[in-house]
Design goal:
It is a single chain. The chain is mainly α and about 260 residues long. It has 2 domains: about 1-65, Orthogonal Bundle (Arc Repressor Mutant, subunit A); about 70-250, Tetracycline Repressor, domain 2 (Orthogonal Bundle), CATH 1.10.357. It is built from 10 helices and no strands. The chain has helices spanning about 1-40, 50-55, 60, 70-100, 110-125, 125-135, 150-170, 185-195, 200-225, 235-250. Helix 1 (about 1-40) packs across helix 2 and helix 5 (about 110-125) runs parallel beside helix 9.
């Protein structure tokens, strides 16, 4: 009797672990299927019934994983922003560590280039994720809190503010006549940006958004397939845009002469 009881006690965690693993695998497949449907059919294609049909599940079964379509979309958006934030933050940290050795401080050009290239690489590797968070909105989607940005999205914006902060000692003379005030920006964004970069003024936050415009524009054209029709060298175009950008801001080149 004792041996049977012990066997049952040991089997229960193993069975529970297997169920949890299968649930995690199915959840991941649901999310992958949703992004694939969006890539081929646009934001309208993300419906729980369509996903269930693709996966060979019943509609009722898929509701056991996501109660509503909006719950699924919210999860997808959080996942995508988190992956992007991790990619650009890793690039920033690596560039900062590499350029600080033997230098009085990390070279701002290296930081800008590293962040920008990481953003482009991530977008081209995950075009469906880029389209979800930066393309057409999912029709009828309502976030859990209307107007509230995911925390990871603010991490990305904070990274952009970091680019502006790195460039600001050189770019500041260009923006002395700026009319921006703190009230011009999202309070949630400022809650992250101001503690991280206390010396950055409102004009510096505006500069971060200008940098975003430069980087996002070319990447969006490339992800949506428009740039490839015009040039066989979109990477060269992106590289030269970055080079001109740091030159315009007055940021010094990297010590090795690379742009």
């Amino acid at each position: 009797m004792t041996g049977t009881s012990e066997a049952r006690t040991e089997a229960a965690p193993a069975g529970r672990g297997r169920r949890e693993r299968l649930r995690a695998e199915t959840t991941a497949e649901i999310k992958d299927t949703a992004l694939r449907l969006m890539t081929s059919g646009g934001p309208d294609a993300i419906t729980l019934r369509a996903i269930a049909r693709e996966m060979g599940m019943t509609a009722n079964a898929i509701y056991g994983y996501f109660a509503t379509r909006d719950d699924l979309v919210t999860t997808l958006i959080d996942d995508v922003y988190s992956a992007l934030a991790d990619a650009v933050e890793t690039a920033w940290a690596t560039a900062s560590a590499e350029t600080s050795a033997g230098d009085p401080g990390p070279n701002p050009t290296a930081r800008i280039l590293a962040w920008a290239h990481a953003f482009r690489t991530w977008a081209l590797t995950h075009p469906e994720g880029f389209r979800l968070v930066y393309g057409d909105p999912v029709p009828g989607y309502r976030a859990p809190e209307e107007g509230a940005a995911p925390d990871a999205a603010r991490r990305v914006c904070t990274g952009l503010a970091g680019l502006a902060a790195a460039a600001w000692p050189y770019a500041e003379p260009l923006y002395r006549d700026s009319a921006f005030t703190w009230s011009d920006f999202d309070a949630g964004l400022l809650d992250k940006v101001r503690p991280a970069f206390p010396e950055l003024p409102p004009a510096g936050v505006a500069l971060a958004l200008r940098l975003w415009g430069h980087l996002h524009g070319l990447v969006a054209l490339e992800v949506y397939g428009h740039l490839g029709r015009q040039t066989a060298s979109p990477d060269k175009l992106f590289q030269e845009e970055l080079s001109r950008l740091v030159t315009t801001l007055g940021v010094p080149r990297r010590a090795d002469g690379e742009d």
